[in-house]
Design goal:
2 copies of one chain form a homodimer.
Chain A (H helix, E strand, L loop, with lengths): L16 H15 L8 H8 L3 H8 L2 H19 L11 H18 L3 H7 L6 H8 L3 H8 L14 H22 L5 H26 L5
Chain A binds a DNA duplex through helix 3.
Chain lengths: 215, 215
DNA sequence: ACACTATTGACCGATATAGTCAATAGTGTT
DNA sequence: AACACTATTGACTATATCGGTCAATAGTGT
C-alpha cells in the first residue's frame, strides 16, 4: 500500500526543529484517540500554527498520520534503541536503562509512547502496520531478549519473573501519571527524585526475591 | 451541583432488565471516550433502540451520563463489594476472589470497569465526582485494606509487595485483552481456563517469594 | 525588482451532533 | 369498545465540526 517514508527527505525536516516537534507532539497527542477521531483543527490549535500550514506540509490528514508514525519510529530508533546497551544482560540493569531513557524522551515527546502503543487496536492500524511490518508492541519482546537467566534462583521461571517486573513498572508509571494532574513543571521536577528512588527500591526488591544470593 | 441520583426511583428501572442493561452497556462503552466525544447516536445504534426513546427516558446526554455513573456505582456495590469477603485477610486469596468476581461482571457489563476508570481524567469528571465525593480509583485502596501483614517474610515491605501483586494482574489483564481481537465467544471460553491457570501460577509464585515458609 | 517559500485564517461542502416532535403501537382500566 | 396513558419510532432541525482549499500576505534570498 504505502511505501516506507523517508523522513529525512520530507519538506518539514527543513523547519526549525522546535516548531516541528511542537507539531509532531500535537499530532502524537491527538492521534492517541485514533485516526478517525483525531481532529486536524485540534492539532493546529495545540501546535500553535495555522490550518493552512499543516496542509501545506502534509497535504492530507492521512499523510500526516503516516509521517507521525515514521517520525516516532525514527526517534525510537535513534534516541532509544541505539542508546540502549544490549550487552547488559542483567535484566534489572537493562530495565533501569530503559526507564531513564524513557523519562528523558517523555520530556521531549510527551505523548509519543502513548501514540505508539495505541497503534495496535486503532483504525489507523491498517494505514501503517503493513508498510512497516511490525507494531511497536512487537518490539517489546526484543527489549527483553537475550537476558541472563542464570542470575535467577532455581525455582523461578525467568519468563514469568520478567513479566512481573515489566508489569510492575508499567503499573507504577500509570499510577504516577494519574496522580499528577497539574503539569506544574517545578512540582514535577520535585517528584522526579522520589520517582527514581521508588523505582530503585522496587529493583532492589526484585533483586532479592528473584536473583540468587551473591557470594 | 447535581445531587446523588437514586437509581431505584428512576423511570428506566421499570424497563425490562435485559433491555435496560443493553442501553447501559452501550452507554458505558461510548462514554469510555469521554463525555464530549461520546455520541448519543452511537449509543442508540449499539443498544438497538431509537433516538427518541433514549431522550424519553433521560432527557439529555448529561442526565444519561450521570445516571450511567450512578448505575455503575450501584452495580459495583451490590454485585462486587458486597460479595467480597473482607474477612479473608490473606491478600492473595482476596485478590483471587476479586479476579473471579471481575470476570463474572465483565460478562454482564463488558465495558463498565473501563468506564469507571476513565472518570478520573475525562471532562465528565466535573459532572459527577463532586456529587459523589469519590472516584472509582479511590476505592482501590479499600480493596487492599486490613490485610494480614504477618504472612509476609520479614525482609519484605507488605505495601510494596501488594503493589507488585496488583500491578502484575493489571498488566496481565491488559496483555490478554490486547491479544484478543475477535470476540469469538467459543474461542474466548477456551482461553478462559488458561487465563485462570496463568493467574494461579502467578499467585503461587507470589506465595513462595513473599510469604513466610509454611510450617 | 524578482522569485520563491512560509504562513495565515476565512471559507466550503459534507458530515455528525444533541435534541424535538408528531405519529403509532401497546397496555391496562372502565 | 372506548379511553387514558405510556412506550417507541425515526424523520427532522439547527448547530458545530470535519478535512481540505485558496487567495492574500509576510519573509527571505538573489
Amino acid at each position: 500500500m504505502s511505501k516506507k517514508i523517508d523522513i529525512s527527505s520530507h519538506k518539514i525536516m527543513s523547519m526549525e526543529a522546535e516548531k516541528r516537534n511542537r507539531i509532531m507532539n500535537a499530532a502524537f497527542k491527538e492521534f492517541n484517540k485514533g485516526y478517525k477521531k483525531a481532529s486536524t483543527d485540534s492539532i493546529v490549535r495545540e501546535a500553535g500554527i495555522s490550518k493552512g500550514l499543516l496542509f501545506h506540509y502534509f497535504g492530507s490528514k492521512e499523510n500526516l498520520y503516516e509521517f507521525a508514525f515514521a517520525y516516532a519510529g525514527d526517534i525510537m530508533l535513534k534516541e532509544y534503541f541505539e542508546l540502549l546497551n544490549f550487552e547488559q544482560r542483567d535484566v534489572l540493569e537493562r530495565l533501569w536503562q530503559m526507564i531513564l531513557l524513557k523519562i528523558d524522551l517523555s520530556y521531549k515527546y510527551p505523548m509519543m509512547f502513548d501514540f505508539l502503543t495505541t497503534l495496535h487496536n486503532e483504525d489507523g492500524h491498517n494505514l501503517v502496520s503493513k508498510s512497516y511490518g511490525y507494531t511497536f508492541e512487537e518490539m517489546i519482546p526484543k527489549l527483553f531478549a537475550d537476558i541472563d537467566e542464570t542470575l535467577f534462583k532455581d525455582g523461578i521461571d525467568p519468563k514469568m519473573a520478567v513479566n512481573i517486573i515489566y508489569w510492575t513498572f508499567a503499573g507504577y508509571s500509570t499510577a504516577q501519571l494519574t496522580r499528577i494532574n497539574s503539569p506544574d513543571l517545578a512540582e514535577v521536577q520535585k517528584e522526579y527524585d522520589r520517582f527514581l528512588k521508588d523505582i530503585q527500591e522496587y529493583l532492589s526488591i526484585f533483586r532479592t526475591i528473584f536473583y540468587k544470593e551473591e557470594k
